[in-house]
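Entry 12.
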Amino acid sequence: MLSKSLVMNLRVATFNLHGTQRRWQDRRELIVQQLVELHPDILCLNEISVLGDTGRWLWRRALDFGLRYHYHQDNTPGYYWAADANAILTGFPVVETGHFDYYSGGRHAQVARLHLDGRLVDVYVTHLHHRRAEDSLREYQVQLLLGWVDSRDEPDARVICGDFNAPPEVRSFDLIRQRFQPTQLEPTVPTPLRLLVDPDPDADVWRYVRREPFQMCVDYIWYAPPLRMSTSGRCFDKPSAENPALWPSDHVGVWADFELIG
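Predicted 3D structure (tokens):
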């Protein structure tokens, strides 16, 4: 039988890496710097470039700063295998991992069951359909996700992380909120990096799309009792000190501190 302490504290973060797009070579050290500052116990990633191996690059680079994580990557299935991947990084022992395919647009979900000082915690990461006007497909994916969650042996606690592409006013958001609570609702997209478009081939300058940054929240950490949130906020949310146009990604991340009681 697993022995259990009364209170367990953990920090969870989720972040969309944005593949190798928009100056990855420039922004990746910015991501590492802010990861070291945040130092989460669990980090969920979306939009890892499979061909660019950006998730493992980040994992290996974090080791240089003393952040030791287990790394579990889940590639997009089938035809979309080379498009991108999700991953879970954690310092806690991993008991098992799992994969679930929505069979829609290459979208999928991943889970890692973690051993936290005598407790079992399931950490899910997913990336839902991206077209704003097609929320019915996201709603279908949320139904499948919740069904998969319910089909697994019940752990002591669960968190679900990732880019849901669903602002709070849509039905897919309401569906998951019937079961779980989001840690925060401050806008996560787009950062000024997203507003950069390809440079003019005849001039070494980047041009901005005429759009306001930070319009909506689409990235979430969802939780339910017995987890109790103490603090939450946005992370990977600071531009380069040398170049204010350079951000870690086109999304900012979300982080939260939890207490697991019992």
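Annotation: The domain at 9-261 is CATH 3.60.10.10 (Deoxyribonuclease I; Chain A). The first helix runs from residue 24 to 38.
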